[in-house]
Design goal:
mainly beta; Jelly Rolls; six-stranded antiparallel β-sheet; five-stranded antiparallel β-sheet; 13 strands; 6% helix
């Protein structure tokens, strides 16, 4: 039976999914609105499904807050994921981290920044969006290595593969909190 757990960040949900193993592999019901709503998941309408594939351990992206809700779950492999509340309010800057396998998912409300690091080669994850992705969308980007947030990356810095833009983004003190 799946479960939905509220975290210390308002609206950020950690979801445990059923993974049914068989001799050929496994099957999971990644998202089923009616079942999850009964467990406390919000009624949402996803309009886009994206799939990302990374070939190596240590691929690191984020911390990006986008103007839509997201539901993220690995299909193959493992992800370390870090979520930072970038919304206006007393939780501004609060951090939650998870290690996600195909048996877990997270629901990120708009205004929460997301970062990840792959922990296995050939990791595949899906993410559902409540708005259509566009490169023109308003985004807030937080520095991956902000000492105030202090993301406990699972690998040494020299083993992380990240973009210069993510490593030189502003620190939390320079960001304007997002108004929901």
């Amino acid at each position: 039976m799946p479960s939905v757990e509220q975290t210390s960040i308002s609206g950020l949900l950690h979801v445990e999914l059923d993974v049914l193993e068989n001799p050929q592999g496994w099957f999971k019901e990644s998202f089923q609105q009616a079942k999850l709503t009964e467990l406390g998941f919000p009624q949402v309408e996803f309009v886009q499904n994206n799939v990302a594939y990374t070939t190596e351990v240590g691929i690191t992206r984020g911390v990006h807050a986008e103007p839509w809700d997201r539901y993220i779950s690995p299909a193959l492999g493992r992800l370390f994921t870090a979520i930072v509340d970038l919304r206006e309010g007393p939780a501004f800057g609060r951090l939650e981290t998870f290690e996600l396998t195909p048996g877990q998912a997270i629901f990120l409300p708009e205004g929460c920044g997301h970062a990840f690091c792959t922990l296995e080669p050939n990791t595949v994850y899906t993410y559902l969006l409540t708005q259509h992705w566009t490169p023109e969308a308003r985004r807030t980007v937080l520095n991956l290595f902000d000492p105030r947030v202090a993301v406990p990356w699972p690998l040494p810095m020299d083993e992380l593969q990240y973009t210069e833009a993510d490593a030189t983004a502003p620190y939390l003190d320079a960001l304007t909190p997002i108004r929901p």
